[in-house]
Write a structure and sequence with these properties.
Elements lengths: L2 H13 L13 E2 L2 E2 H6 L11 H13 L4 H7 L1 H14 L1 H14 L18 H40 L4 H11 L1
Helix pairs in contact: 1-5, 4-5, 5-6, 5-7, 6-7, 7-8
Length: 179
């Protein structure tokens, strides 16, 4: 099983099947894919009928590939899976910024590697910083990095619920399943 396949299965397990919750901003969704995203990617059928393979293709093209998660997975499969799940739920830019912010505060005042620009795009400098971080901090560092990414994610969910009361319908599940 590839890292993408593992990430996809994990995310679909959290997202579930067809839903059209009245408090959700995305309207009709299936496997976590909103109708707007499905249509942007060429799907024209009913959301309840969205094939799983179509959802998988959308996830790979829209989230996995732009975040360079194949490269990240070569360094840490766990980090790649976490970033993918965060991106699906919060957007690519947010997932990338969480990684960049965390790497910057863990670089020991740039003694280990230079700060990365917090631009919401994973490029060669972010990948290099992660690689150096993992070489220096090893498995204990990976565990702390994952906790840090989840901490930022959890704080963001609280903010979303504070700023939009309707999100209170989802915040408990977000925290239970994603953080």
């Amino acid at each position: 099983m590839t890292a993408f396949d593992e990430a996809f299965e994990n995310t679909v397990a959290h997202e579930g099947g067809y839903s059209n919750h009245s408090a959700g901003r995305g309207g009709a969704t299936n496997y976590g894919i909103t109708e707007a995203v499905a249509q942007e990617n060429g799907y024209t059928g009913a959301m309840a009928d969205l094939p799983l393979e179509t959802a998988k293709d959308i996830y790979q093209r829209r989230y996995w590939n732009p975040l360079r998660l194949d490269e990240i997975a070569k360094i840490s499969t766990s980090v790649a899976i976490e970033l993918f799940d965060t991106a699906v739920n919060m957007g690519n830019g947010t997932a990338a910024k969480f990684l960049q912010r965390t790497l910057n505060v863990f670089n020991r005042q740039q003694a280990d590697y230079p700060d990365t620009r917090i631009d919401g795009a994973i490029g060669p400098k972010t990948v290099s910083a992660l690689q150096t971080f993992m070489m220096k901090r090893k498995q204990p560092g990976e565990a702390v990095l994952l906790k840090s990414l989840n901490s930022l994610q959890g704080a963001r969910y609280i903010e979303l619920a504070e700023n939009r009361e309707q999100n209170e319908a989802f915040v408990f599940g977000w925290m239970a399943n994603r953080v």
